[in-house]
């Protein structure tokens, strides 16, 4: 077989080139990566065994040396065994050894081991040749064990320590043990001692390396190594020569490795007398020996009480404490380790250590440059403080707190763990708790709760438990969000969970007295984010008796509502949980905890008279069957029956009364309740019975129905249940729905479209019902006992009224459709109008409350909210008013102004007749006659009438009909919204028919039929009016419950739509099938300019049909399709229609489930059309970076853009940069950009700020609820320093989130500008050439 060829050459310059010179063979070799051409297995097979072995060792040694160079500067303070184990673990996995190479190398090494063992066995004498051979043999075996076992075997052996096994298998252990002692002296040897101590040192070193594997430890001891190693330790008395120093150090290292995690060998070392010499070596002149001795003592002391005691008895403590002060990191690391093992579970030794003065030097090690010494010192301090209270105080007094807190923020997880451990023990002393928090320990400890390390979590939690015991820390705890951290944390072990629960309980106990006063002060004056944290914490921790003080009188409820209305999902969930917790505390009985009590005692005729013809004086016809009743019983049951039989209704004198809209089963149950005062309400009839009870004003029966329905509330039906409660004024059911929504807010968040609606429910409800959280302890009379809540809802507190004024002012001064049309109110004017609106609404609601003294104020609250809404709308439609004209408007509460009326906000123009102002009420014939007198005046010029907010009875409608008929030819605008509320269906239909007939033939420009529960029957009731319209320009059918059938009726009854410019459908139940009918109407609207079909439950099929129909509406300017479920299919259809709208100026496509694909096709379509687009809204469509290039190109082409809304998507930094770049050039009219809740970080925020501040007319950047770092927030505020009003709130931002371009640490800050410039420089918006 041919020998492998090696190239000749000069000394290599690359570290992978090795020049090998081995004396026995005198063969100089050069091995390079390129010239070593044969496979390693072939080479090993051809080369002599010893040469193979030596070459492999050298390669391994060089590899190890390279590794050492790479690791230079990283201190290694571990024992021999631990260092080797870690080196092995650090090797790269995945390199499979060659089976041939492995086999050949094993034979080569085994052969070499046999040769070296043979030398050791035959060279045990003082002859110089024998000593030299023995020395060389121990070195060869040590090199094999050290280098082959940890590096070379990775490439050639399946198991990393196979080389060590081969050495032991080759019989090296007994041969090496033999040479741990000097050879016997013979007469021939004389006094010459060649290589004295050298051979013993080599043997000890090799055996220490072999002891890496636990199974070899006992084998080495069994061959008698321990006595010899102890004898070697004692050689330190023979001097301090280099040879003595080396052999003593190697002996100590060998003992360390032999005893590592082997309790039996630790004991044997003590019995062999190894501890005293090791203690003596602590004072040896050579520092390496000191370190080796300390390392051995550290190992021997671990979990071995007899060894600990002997070490102390040998007076090791004074020397060890001196070593703690050494500047050599290796020395003080081992010393602190020894002391730590000594005091562990040994209180007596700990006392001796403390008495010897260990505290201060250990504290000094907390500032060591060696992280391992820091860790051991922190652990030791924690052990010192475990039980001794005085020691806890001394540790803090001597300056340990500062360094320990710094260590909490280290990148070394073990360092953080040990510092938290020490602080946890120290924090259990009351004298230390405030100091730790004051020095900044609170926030780092809270951050450690996010760790995935169970021990680290627990140590931090235990420290926080201690800090929570001090009243002075409670405010800081809550201020920095500590309560939320504790509540939201995902804790790994049960002990940590228990500790956190105890901490929260401890904090709860402190929320009183001066602590509560301080928190209330913070909640009033601190930054918004801190205020919210306080409100959240108090919602969970405060006592029920303090709720009114905190949440009503001090504005805590407003803060929680702000969270619930946030765009940040986490803040919404926090607010919901807090409100639910608060509501549960406020309630004396949950609506679903028990059935409502029996109604107020009254006289009932009894079961025997139900449907009994005896003495019956009235008969109801239900589904063709007769039901016998008694007027006296009905009159006593409700106001509805009293009005029926005592009022001006036709039923007053009728013998038979038809009930057209109630099933027999339901009517019978209702009558049974009237006669007996009780009834069993089954779930299948509960909703129908609730409707009947509401229609006939049977409050007690309503409560029973509400209770039954509440048992069936679920995630799927809570929305419909809430709507049911609204429809029938079911207050208890509404309470239950709100509580259910709050309790299950996290699960509802999976349904973002519904969640938006739910959040609106809760915000409106709780904002108005602030009294919901204010318990009325005086409510003990029977009238309160009937209700499941002991709560008085009226009047609201002053704080609640102020809160409403602030919200109204905000609505009046914010941008809206009305502001664009009528102008925006200034801040001062908005505030003045808000005060007047609230005062007028409060007065009307108070009058309503006075008229229902037996109620809880529920109807007054409803009127309060309704009145405010109406008045807000009037002010918005009126627009800004000159200051001098403000004097004619109503003043605040108690001074209605010059007109002494609460009916109107502004004097109505003489062409506008409006009866909608004031409280909502039923209107009868006599009142109608009086109210409509102005319309009867000859020559009046009323062209617009509004009958909204007045519920007309049939007789009232008949009075109004001739009046309307007399002026219908001059009418241009008719508003009949919300004019049949609370009327029975048959009566409501007749009323609508009467009004429709009266107005038939009028030539209207605008017709508003919104807010009436029309359905198909209602639409057809307006048949005469609708069919007669030939010039209608505006039609409003919002919130009408228009279903599929009703939509078909609309399509059928509006034959003439050629002049229609505005068509508004909002908040209906149209669905896909209904959308198909509306699409037919659209096809006949060539002049349509404004189309709204939002919140109508339209899906992909209906959306596609609407989009196709819109292609014929080429005049379209405003398109509002928000809050439907179009998806990609409908988006594609809409994209085809968009180019047909050259005049499009506003497009609202939020919450359409477009996602990237849908958003892309629409943006591409808009890019080349709608040049005058001013408003572009694609909020809440799950848009990611994938769709951003198309959207950016579209935006870049819209130079007239005024408002851009991309809220609640996932742009992140990369998308934000592209969108901002698209706005950079031109766009001089840009006024507003909304990019809330987009996971944008510091980089994206900076680019947006830079771009928008260049726009001359820009007004507002909303970039809240993102992942902007604290530094980024500061930069934004600095950028907008001269115009802070142009930057929206940032209080919902999450600085702990992860943005795309957020800096990983502080050191990256300097590169941020370059990174952003690079992104901007190379970014190009994809605008195709025309």
TrEMBL record:
InterPro entries listed in its UniProt record: ABAP1/ARIA, ARM-like, ARM-type_fold, ARM_PUB, Armadillo, BTB/POZ_dom, Leu-rich_rpt, LRR_dom_sf
A Gene Ontology cellular-component term: cytoplasm
Occurrences of domain BTB (ranges): 616-683
Comp. bias (Basic and acidic residues): 82-92, 1316-1330
Region ranges (Disordered): 69-101, 881-902, 1283-1330
Domain of life of the organism encoding this protein: Eukaryota
Keyword terms, alphabetized: Cytoplasm, Nucleus, Repeat
Gene3D superfamilies (alphabetical): Leucine-rich Repeat Variant (1.25.10.10), Potassium Channel Kv1.1, Chain A (3.30.710.10), Ribonuclease Inhibitor (3.80.10.10), WPP domain (1.10.246.200)
PROSITE patterns the record matches: ARM_REPEAT (PS50176), BTB (PS50097)
Positions with biased composition (Acidic residues): 885-895, 1291-1315
Metabolic or biological pathway: Protein modification; protein ubiquitination
CDD domains: BTB_POZ_ARIA_plant
Location within or outside the cell: Cytoplasm; Nucleus
ARM repeats: from-to residues: 171-225, 224-273, 273-308, 315-357, 399-441, 440-482
Record protein name field: BTB domain-containing protein
Source organism phylogeny: Eukaryota, Viridiplantae, Streptophyta, Embryophyta, Tracheophyta
């Amino acid at each position: 077989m041919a020998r492998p060829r090696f190239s000749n050459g000069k000394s290599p310059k690359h570290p992978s080139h090795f020049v090998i010179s081995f004396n026995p063979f005198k063969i100089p070799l050069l091995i390079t990566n390129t010239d070593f051409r044969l496979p390693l297995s072939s080479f090993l097979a051809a080369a002599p065994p010893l040469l193979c072995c030596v070459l492999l060792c050298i390669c391994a040694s060089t590899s190890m040396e390279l590794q050492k160079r790479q690791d230079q500067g990283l201190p290694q303070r571990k024992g021999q065994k631990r260092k080797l184990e870690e080196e092995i673990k650090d090797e790269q996995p995945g390199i499979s050894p060659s089976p041939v190479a492995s086999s050949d190398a094993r034979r080569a090494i085994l052969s070499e081991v046999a040769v070296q063992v043979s030398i050791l066995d035959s060279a045990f004498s003082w002859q110089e040749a024998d000593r030299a051979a023995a020395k060389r043999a121990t070195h060869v075996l040590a090199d094999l064990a050290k280098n082959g076992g940890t590096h070379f075997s990775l490439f050639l052996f399946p198991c990393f320590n196979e080389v060590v096994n081969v050495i032991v298998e080759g019989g090296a252990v007994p041969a090496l043990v033999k040479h741990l002692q000097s050879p016997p002296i013979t007469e021939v040897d004389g006094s010459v001692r060649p290589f004295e101590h050298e051979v013993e040192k080599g043997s000890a070193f090799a055996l220490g390396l072999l002891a890496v594997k636990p199974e070899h430890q006992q084998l080495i001891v069994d061959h008698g190594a321990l006595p010899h190693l102890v004898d070697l330790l004692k050689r330190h008395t023979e001097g301090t020569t280099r040879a003595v120093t080396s052999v003593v150090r190697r002996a100590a290292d060998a003992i360390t490795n032999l005893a590592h995690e082997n309790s039996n060998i630790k004991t044997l070392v003590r019995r062999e007398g190894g501890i005293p010499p090791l203690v003596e070596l602590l004072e040896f002149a050579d520092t390496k020996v000191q370190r080796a001795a300390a390392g051995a003592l550290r190992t021997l002391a671990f979990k071995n009480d007899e060894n600990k005691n002997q070490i102390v008895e040998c007076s090791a403590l004074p020397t060890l404490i001196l070593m703690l002060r050494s500047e050599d990191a290796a020395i003080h690391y081992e010393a602190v380790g020894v002391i730590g093992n000594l005091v562990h579970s040994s209180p007596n030794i700990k006392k001796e250590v403390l008495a010897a003065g260990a505290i201060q030097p250990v504290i000094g090690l907390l500032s060591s440059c060696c992280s391992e010494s820091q860790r051991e010192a922190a652990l030791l301090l924690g052990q010192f403080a475990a039980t001794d209270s005085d020691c806890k105080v001394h540790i803090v007094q001597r300056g340990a707190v500062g360094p320990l807190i710094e260590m909490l923020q280290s990148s070394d997880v073990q360092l953080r763990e040990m510092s938290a451990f020490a602080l946890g023990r120290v924090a259990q002393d009351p004298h230390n708790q405030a100091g730790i928090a004051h020095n900044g320990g609170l926030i780092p400890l809270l951050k450690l709760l996010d760790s995935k390390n169970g021990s680290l979590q627990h140590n931090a939690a235990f420290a926080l438990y201690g800090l929570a015991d001090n009243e002075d820390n409670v405010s800081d705890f809550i201020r920095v969000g500590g309560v939320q951290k504790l509540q939201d944390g995902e804790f790994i072990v049960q002990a940590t969970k228990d500790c956190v629960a105890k901490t929260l309980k401890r904090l709860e106990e402190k929320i009183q007295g001066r602590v509560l006063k301080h928190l209330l002060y913070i909640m009033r004056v601190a930054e918004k984010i801190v205020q919210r944290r306080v409100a959240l914490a108090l919602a969970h921790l405060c006592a029920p008796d303090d709720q009114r003080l905190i949440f009503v009188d001090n504005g805590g409820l407003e803060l929680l509502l702000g969270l619930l209305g946030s765009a940040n999902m986490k803040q919404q969930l926090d607010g919901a949980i807090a409100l639910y917790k608060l509501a549960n505390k406020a309630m004396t009985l949950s609506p679903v905890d028990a059935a409502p009590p029996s109604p107020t005692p009254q006289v009932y005729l009894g079961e025997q008279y139900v449907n009994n013809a005896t003495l019956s004086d009235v008969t109801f016809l239900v589904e063709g069957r007769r039901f016998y009743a008694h007027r006296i019983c009905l009159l006593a049951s409700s106001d509805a029956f009293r009005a029926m039989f005592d009022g001006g209704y036709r039923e007053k004198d009728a013998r038979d009364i038809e009930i057209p809209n109630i099933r027999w089963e339901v009517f019978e149950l209702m009558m049974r309740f009237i006669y007996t005062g009780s009834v069993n309400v089954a779930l299948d009839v509960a909703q129908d019975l609730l409707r009947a009870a509401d229609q006939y004003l049977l409050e007690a029966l309503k409560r029973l129905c509400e209770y039954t329905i509440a048992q069936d509330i679920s995630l799927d039906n809570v929305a419909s249940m809430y709507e049911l409660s609204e429809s029938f004024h079911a207050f208890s059911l509404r309470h239950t729905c709100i509580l259910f929504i709050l309790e299950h807010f996290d699960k509802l968040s999976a349904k973002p479209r519904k969640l938006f609606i739910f959040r609106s429910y809760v915000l409106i409800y709780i904002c108005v019902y602030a009294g919901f959280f204010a318990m009325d302890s005086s409510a003990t009379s029977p009238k309160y006992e009937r209700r499941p809540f002991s709560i008085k809802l009226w009047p609201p507190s002053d704080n609640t009224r102020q809160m409403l004024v602030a919200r109204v002012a905000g609505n009046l001064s914010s941008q809206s459709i009305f502001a664009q049309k009528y102008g925006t109110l200034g801040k001062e004017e908005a505030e003045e109008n808000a005060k007047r609106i609230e005062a007028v609404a409060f007065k009307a609601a108070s009058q309503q409350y006075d008229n229902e003294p037996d109620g809880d104020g529920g109807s007054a609250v409803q009127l309060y909210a309704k009145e405010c809404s109406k008045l807000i709308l009037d002010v918005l439609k009126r627009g800004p008013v000159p200051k001098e004209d403000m004097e004619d408007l109503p003043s605040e509460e108690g001074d209605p102004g010059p007109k002494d009326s609460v009916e109107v906000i502004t004097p109505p123009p003489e062409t506008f007749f409006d009866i909608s102002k004031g409280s909502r009420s039923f209107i009868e014939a006599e009142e109608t006659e009086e109210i409509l007198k102005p319309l009867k005046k000859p020559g009046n010029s009323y062209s617009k009438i509004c009958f909204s907010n007045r519920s007309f009875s049939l007789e009232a409608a008949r009075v109004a009909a001739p009046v309307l008929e007399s002026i219908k030819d001059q009418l241009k605008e008719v508003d009949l919204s919300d004019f049949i509320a609370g009327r029975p269906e048959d009566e409501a239909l007749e009323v609508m028919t009467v009004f429709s007939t009266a107005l038939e033939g009028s030539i209207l420009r605008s017709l508003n039929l919104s807010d009436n529960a029309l359905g198909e029957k209602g639409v057809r009731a307006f048949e005469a009016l609708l069919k007669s319209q030939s010039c209608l320009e505006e039609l409003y059918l919002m919130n009408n419950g228009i279903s599929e059938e009703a939509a078909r009726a609309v399509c059928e009854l509006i034959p003439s739509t050629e002049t229609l410019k505005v068509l508004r459908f909002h908040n209906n139940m149209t669905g896909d099938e209904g959308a198909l009918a509306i699409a037919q109407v659209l096809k006949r609207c060539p002049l349509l300019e404004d189309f709204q079909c939002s919140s109508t439950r339209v899906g992909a099929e209906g959306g596609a049909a609407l989009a196709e129909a819109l292609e014929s509406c080429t005049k379209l300017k405003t398109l509002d399709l928000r809050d439907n479920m179009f998806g990609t299919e409908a988006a594609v259809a809409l994209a085809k229609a968009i180019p047909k709208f050259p005049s499009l100026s506003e497009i609202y496509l939020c919450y359409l489930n477009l996602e990237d694909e849908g958003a892309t096709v629409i943006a591409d379509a808009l890019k080349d059309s709608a040049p005058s687009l001013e408003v572009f809204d694609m909020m809440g469509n799950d848009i990611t970076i994938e769709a951003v290039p198309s959207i950016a190109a579209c935006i870049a082409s819209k130079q007239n853009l005024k408002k851009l809304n991309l809220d609640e998507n996932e742009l992140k930094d990369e998308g934000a940069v592209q969108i901002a770049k698209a706005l950079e050039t031109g766009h001089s009219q840009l006024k507003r950009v909304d990019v809330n809740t987009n996971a944008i970080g510091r980089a994206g925020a900076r680019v947006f700020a830079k771009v928008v501040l260049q726009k001359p007319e820009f007004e507002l950047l909303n970039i809240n609820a993102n992942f902007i770092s604290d530094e980024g927030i500061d930069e934004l505020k600095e950028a907008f320093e001269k115009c802070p009003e142009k930057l929206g709130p940032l209080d919902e931002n999450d600085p702990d989130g992860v943005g795309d371009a957020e800096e990983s640490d502080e050191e990256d800050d300097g590169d941020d500008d370059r990174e952003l410039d690079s992104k901007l420089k190379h970014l190009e918006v994809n605008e195709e050439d025309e």
